Amino acid sequence: MNNTTTKKKFALIGSAGFIAPRHMQAIKETGNELVCALDRFDVMGTIDSFSPNADFFTEPERFDRHLDKLRREGKNKIDYVSICSPNYLHDAHIRLALRNQAHAICEKPLVINPWNLDALQEIEKESGKSIYTILQLRLHPAIVALKKQVEQSPPGKIVDIDLTYITSRGRWYFISWKGNLQKSGGLVTNIGIHFFDMLMWVFGEVRQNIVHHSAHDNAAGFLRLERANVRWFLSVDAEDLPDSSKQAGKRTYRSITIEGQEIGFSEGFTGLHTRAYEEILNGKGLGIEDARASINAAYNIRHTIPIGKSGDYHPMLAKI
Question: Which domain-ending residue is among 108, 133, 158?
Fold first, then answer.
């Protein structure tokens, strides 16, 4: 819960998106209020479950004007703007938030290109407001326990890791902004970046970054971190699912093995956005520098020429 007696006022951009309800729930569960929301998609029944009295806009210009009006009147001035819009708009929407003297809470990836982070840091300094990002895997109990285990292991110990994440998507995915490399940053940035962030948070900085395969629907590579060698495979193609998942009718497969031992983190995701909001409201939120390493890694993967099935590649790649 919010540890202050005064409710914080929130605005939400991208309120019709897939991830937006988790932000609405986090705002409500921390005892705060969603005052207004923006999305060009105008069927917004979801908001009724959380903030039925929130003002709603489909045009950013009118939304921006509304935030400015609230700020000037002093009544219901927005304290935070939560951003769930398409990746390529994050930079602009963060600027909109800070321009209206509100903190920004932005979904991953904070931006697509690393140099945008430097510009945002300048604006952060000028405005006196903060830019936060949601990297919820850092709050997952299994991942927190893993980090403690690594910190307590002998110095110099390096482990072998296989990361596999397959989340099936239909044809709509490639027609939407998510399938557009310029708008989403591609598969690695859109669905892989929080896994890369988590691995670097636990096992240290990138020492070597190799790409074995890169396509619009799946990708594979190798990361040498300070304390781990990571073979990774990402996919949105249902054909890449293991037979066991297909037979069980599952459309998502998530696995991390360390030295052949599975790390159980398929469960435990409920409430992580609320936990992230609690951290932000208590002054412990993750910011630009926390996001930088994974954004750099994803950018480098996106601009690296794949070497094919050579060297130490992920076993799933053998089927491609």
Answer: 133
